[in-house]
Amino acid sequence: MPSTPLISVVVPCYDEEAVLERTHRRLTAVLRRLPDCAHEVVYVDDGSRDGTWRTLASVTGGDPAVRLLRLTRNFGHQQAILAGLRAAAGDAVVTMDADLQDPPELIPELVERWRAGWSVVSARRTSRAGESRFKVVTAHVYYRLLAALADQPVALDTGDFRLLDRSVVRLLAELPEGEPYLRGSVCWAGFPETSVAYERLPRPAGRSKYSLRKMADLSRRGLVSCSPAPARAPAVIGLTWLGGAAMTVAVRRHRLPLAAWTFGCEAVLLGLLGEYLRLVHRELRGRPPYVLLERHPPQPGGQPAGPVPAPDGTVRPLAVARGAQDRAAQ
Ligand code: UDP
Ligand code: MG
């Protein structure tokens, strides 16, 4: 870790003109007080329809520590964060919402944990003041369902307020997924992770940009990204159904209509197709088969400083490229 590390903060903004002045003031006040750190802020305007872009330019005007990105249209929260991650140069990158529900004052604690050696430091919500009962209850149930179905442990009660070490950012930024679900990708990557608790406060201004449709889309994305369960569900239903049908015939000596057997068989066949689709989906997402955390003894000639061209000329993330070299060495 450099003696004066650069801390980047990525802030996705969609129709946030009402709050940005306050956000920038509080954020820069915190960042300027960070001991022995340089900082930069990357604001990403995700195709706002209001004066967000103008407001960003005026409230940050001339600050050399600020970078502004503007997407052509509204691509969504996750894509906006990804654009910011790809632009951020920091040794550690914090991602946070623009609406001050993620308090900037927590950043020093995130940085402290990172300095203690953690690659991922997530901010864990202990309360969600100012959010509708519907949102609190559905989020609670959804994340517990996701944790039960996911094939990797999923951090509970965390959104996208977290700090990522450069090694994690490098990996995430290079993943070619068209529909990113970053909190799932962070869990999948498996870097050492800790969390810091905080109280999520109400928005001081503006309204939530997460419509019901956007929430449903994010939930679907999370489930498909983290869990094989949706693809496997038809096979599980079909096998359970056929098992129940067989028991009925064997124990109760009832004859069952042909339609009952046909339904079970069709569900199992759908499940088989689902399994193939899942494998195709996995290949298309282009995630590497594994991610290397470190190696001892260090690579001869030292660690490469950035993404390494693979033998076929494509540039892969550093950790992946190291993995590929390991495989080649076996
Ligand atoms: N956001 C975005 N694109 C969108 C929706 C939201 O960049 O399509 C940003 C938004 O400006 C905010 C963050 O994502 O910085 C979280 O959105 P919001 O506060 O509306 O979500 P909520 O806290 O209500 O879940
Ligand atoms: Mg919010």
UniProtKB/TrEMBL annotation:
Uppermost EC category: transferase
Domain of life of the source: Bacteria
Domain Glycosyltransferase 2-like: 8-169
Keyword Transcription regulation: no
GO-annotated molecular function: glycosyltransferase activity
Compartmental location: Membrane
Keywords, in A-Z order: Glycosyltransferase, Membrane, Transferase, Transmembrane, Transmembrane helix
Gene3D superfamilies for the chain: Spore Coat Polysaccharide Biosynthesis Protein SpsA, Chain A (3.90.550.10)
CDD domains linked to this entry: DPM1_like_bac
Disordered, as annotated region: 291-330
Record InterPro entries: Glyco_trans_2-like (IPR001173), Glycosyltransferase_2 (IPR050256), Nucleotide-diphossugar_trans (IPR029044)
One protein family per Pfam: Glycos_transf_2
Stored PANTHER family: PROPHAGE BACTOPRENOL GLUCOSYL TRANSFERASE HOMOLOG, UNDECAPRENYL-PHOSPHATE 4-DEOXY-4-FORMAMIDO-L-ARABINOSE TRANSFERASE-RELATED
Similarity comment text for this entry: Belongs to the glycosyltransferase 2 family.
Annotated protein name in UniProt: Glycosyltransferase family 2 protein
Native source organism of the sequence: Streptomyces ochraceiscleroticus
